Amino acid sequence: xxxxxxxxxxxxxxxxxxxxxxxxxxxxxxxxxxxxxxxxxxxxxxxxxxxxxxxxxxxxxxxxxxxx
Length: 68
Description:
Blueprint: E1 8-9, H1 22-28, E2 33-34, H2 50-63
Parallel strand pairs: 1-2
């Protein structure tokens, strides 16, 4: 049996809370992934909206090895 360790971070920890650009920054600093929050009332819970989900999926295709 093998064990995989994946390093990820919260976007707000790197100054990119609620920002798709956090995915590129996470890649540049050597992380495997980014934890995406469901959002806040202040940003109208935008990660729950289909257009934002599409932006995250497109960013994942551009910067990552894995996509949904």
